[in-house]
Amino acid sequence: MNLLNAHGYSVSHGRALLMETALANAVVENTRAHQGLYVPPFLRKGTFVFFAADNTDCAEDTRDGKGTTHGTITAVYQKIDPSKEPVAEPLIIGDAQSLSVTPYHVDILHCDKPTPQHAKRSEQFAISRGISESYQLTHLG
């Protein structure tokens, strides 16, 4: 990167790190403003959203379980409607003077283990409704 910068094709590596730090600090401020949740500035109120979530697990076969990577990715999509009011303000990206990111911690709330709820079986439904056995075999599985 510095070689490209020396020839006028790129910013320096140090400048790229400062820009990355400024962006990270802007994301921290957005997260702080929304009680620990990052809200993308492009989201609009009153417009349907689509979410996709996935996880990634790398090097799961290590002997001691150390050195593995576990991550969760969440993406949000929304049709553009400029007439609607934004949910969050645009990120304010200032000039970073150092490579330190503003610390911000979110307390994780306690969540009790849910009680399993078993679905009603089709046989019980059929018996309670007086459905014949031949119909059950062909239609209820």
Highlighted features:
two-stranded antiparallel ribbon; 141 residues; 4 helices; alpha+beta; elongated; single chain
What this model shows, in words?
With 141 residues, the protein is of the alpha+beta class. It is built from four helices and two strands, in the order H-H-E-E-H-H. The protein has a domain at 42-87. Helices cover 30% and strands 14% of the residues. It has a two-stranded antiparallel sheet. The radius of gyration is 26 Å and the shape is elongated. The termini are far apart. The model has no long low-confidence stretch (mean pLDDT 83).
Strand and helix layout:
Blueprint lengths: L1 H5 L6 H21 L15 E10 L10 E10 L43 H8 L3 H8 L1
Antiparallel strand pairs: 1-2
